[in-house]
Amino acid sequence: MSEIQASIPNAGNITRAQLDNGVTLLVYENPAVLSVNVMGSLQAGGIYETPRQSGLASLVAGALMTGTRGRDFDAIHGSLEDAGADLGFRGHMHKLGFSGKALAEDLGLLLDGASDCLRNPIFPAEHVERLRGERLTWLQYSNFDTRYRAAKAMRQALYPETHPYHYGTYGDEASIADIALDDLKNFHAEHFGPAGMILVIVGAVDAADAIGLAADAFGDWRNPEQPAIRQAHEPEQSTADLRPSVSVPGKTQSDISMGIVGPARKAGDYLAAQLANSVLGEFGMMGRIGKSVREEKGLAYYAYSRLGGGHGPDPWTISAGVNPENVELAIASIMEEIERLTTEAVTDEDLADNQSYFTGRMPLRLESNEGIASNIHSMESFNLGLDYLANYDDMIYRITTADLLRAARNYLRPERMVVAVAGPEASTP
Amino acid sequence: MPNLTHHTLPNGLTVLLREAHSAPVISWWLAYRVGSRNEPTGKTGISHWVEHMMFKGTKRFPAGALDREIDRAGGQWNAFTSMDATKYFETLPANKIDIALEAEADRMTKALFDADETESERTVIISERQGAENQPTFWLQEELRGAAFRVHGYHHEIIGDETDLRTMTRDDLYAHYRRHYQPSNAAAIAVGAFDTREMLAKIEQRFGAIEGGAAPDLFSRTEPEQQGERRVTVERPGNTAFFELCHRAPAATHEDWFKLRLLDAILSGSSGASDNKTSRLYQALVKSEIAAGVGAWMTPTVDPYLYSIIVTLRDGRSPAEAEAALLKEIARLSADGVSEAELNKARKQTRAAFAYSRESVTEQAYGLAQSFILGDVHWFDKFSDRLMRVSAADVQEAAARYLVPQRRIVGILNPIAQDEEGAPA
Lengths: 429, 425
Fold this sequence. Notes:
The structure holds two protein chains of two kinds. Chain A is an alpha+beta fold. Chain A has two domains: about 5-220, 2-Layer Sandwich (Cytochrome Bc1 Complex, Chain A, domain 1), CATH 3.30.830.10; about 245-425, CATH 3.30.830.10. Helices cover about 45% and strands about 15% of the residues of chain A. Chain A is built from 17 helices and eleven strands. Chain A has helices at about 5, 55-65, 75-80, 105-120, 125-140, 145-160, 175-180, 180-190, 205-220, 270-280, 285-295, 325-345, 350-360, 360-365, 370-380, 390-395, 400-410, and strands at about 15-20, 25-30, 35-40, 85-90, 95-105, 200-205, 245, 255-260, 300-305, 315-320, 420-425. In chain A, the strands form two sheets. A six-stranded mixed β-sheet of chain A has the order 1-2-6-3-5-4, with helices on both faces. Chain A has a five-stranded mixed β-sheet with strand order 7-11-8-10-9, sandwiched between helices. The radius of gyration of chain A is 23 Å and the shape is globular. A six-stranded mixed β-sheet of chain B has the order 1-2-6-3-5-4, sandwiched between helices. Chain B has two domains: about 5-205, CATH 3.30.830.10; about 230-415, Cytochrome Bc1 Complex, Chain A, domain 1 (2-Layer Sandwich). The longest helix of chain B has 19 residues, at about 115-135. Classes of the chains: A alpha+beta, B alpha+beta.
């Protein structure tokens, strides 16, 4: 086994334990550092909101550290900051995520803080109102951000109003203004609990000690009211205008956001689609799109593609920032590359380049506590198995050029592609 | 911090090496002592544009070849132009590092600066500037710099003025490159899983034959002393107001820089370790609901620069309210000083931040590259110790000396409403 392979987290060096209340604990000892990171998730994301409450899960996540039954705002933050520790909660579409870091000697402080905020928040009215004001300021500012507006218009055209992905996790000005204090308390009471919770600990710790501290912090948590896990269904074909255009006065550049429904992380062709995406808009200087739009035509500083790949049908997106005069040319250039990817198999050389890229970057992704924790959390969250990273090279090298073509054709359908533009003047792409 | 190897090749190239075997990874940097501060009027943005052209190929590695090679190896590479420096880096699996040494040795003197590539890159860079212009705060920063530095090269944005980006020629860029990209004006830095003797031999092999010479005279102008407070107001379409309060700070190698840095950790909580909600400014501005957010920056620079505090105002609150609250906190600090508890908190946060930064060889190598640029290769290593030595009296003295109207530049960004056609509503 090479040095690189031996250092990859796997079933043999990750300690996994499950508490009887459903919490899954995973610990990876990393004696090369002085610190410790925690990363975790609960089944309490935006997918559990109603459309009227859009942004509620994220607001709850943001308010967790404003006061608990035993500690006020200053006491919660003071205890962490005095130790140079950091802890934060964030509402995602499917889950509430949390992460923190501290010197290794302060792991107990970090876990106790996470436990207190997750289990005992009281949502003090004055703090919730302050947070609401901060969110509204952010949303108002974002309304003048062309990148945000283009991505939002793309998302709303791609997913119908009946689909949770139509709505942003941060909500909008109207929904945030309407959310009541009781909505936060009720959401917490109903959805926060140990069932399905994942907690990963990575750093200069002893695994048995870390499991003990985590069990002390979360072992007696119960919530029999927790609902079943909610899934995001495949969206129906959108009837919205597939070419939305947003005017944002006073800007000098237009942003293009193109999107199509992509594979979920557990889809059988997910890795093939990831490799296809890399060819399209990632490898080297932003893949074929970057080569065409930036390197050859000089139209944009950035032009790239990304594949979401989460718990549901996330979008496969292409983004570019261009001068308003070049919008049409940039879109046409991107569409040409999509057509090429869906009609011609990539060369053996292209495939080999991208396979080498995917497998070669592993050591960099596992360089820090945070990187290791993120990868372990993904393996558990998507039920990939704890030897997923150890087997990753084999899986990547089994993929063929035919697999890439099939995956590209399966998702990148030009007739369903949403092309949203936000810029200084309305222009129909 | 132990085990730093500091060596100079006969051609003048500085070499800084630190073994770190925590992960099978090496971060490799080439740092050049040239940045936007060294650009005369008419050539603003030239350092950054040269940085872009360094990715456009050499005879040995044509454009795109290294993108492919480094991605194939699973590496990352990029470059940054700052006010003081231009830095290039590759972080790679340890057994693939040779390609990075080959690449940087080759493009130190053999970049092509093809005329067609130069023209294509002109529009890319203008697009980069226009993308930045879409953020209202870019306009505020640009005006503030201009107001703060009338003479010194810190007065313009690193990206450059659009008029210069439209008029500079391929020959201008090439001359800038040839003048500044030479061993005596650069440092090679490596941190990671290697044997120091072997790495030094590899560097000597690739860089030793590059012709040496005296380090270039860098274009630089001294900023005269400020004569009273300066103010700028920017109006841009939008609906969020910003207030920025700047004070002139000393150069990063000055002992007072560390006093101000600790002062900042107490005032804004920007320790790099945690998002401080018990800091004085968070309490005075965000908790009081004047602001949606407050942040502060103390950039370590070669010449005296700025200590900046920027406030994002909540809807309905005015820049005047933010200014009054900030000045009240500064006056309190100057008059009453800081407590031992606050000092201890800032010290522990500093220790934690330092521990976090050591997890990544890329961050460690960046720190060494920045140290070289600042003129003290031990600057990063001694950072934590120098902060620990700052006393409560030092912080109070720094507040009284630096946070005064004679060193102050104030910036306000007022949002203006516009209709969909772009005309003032």
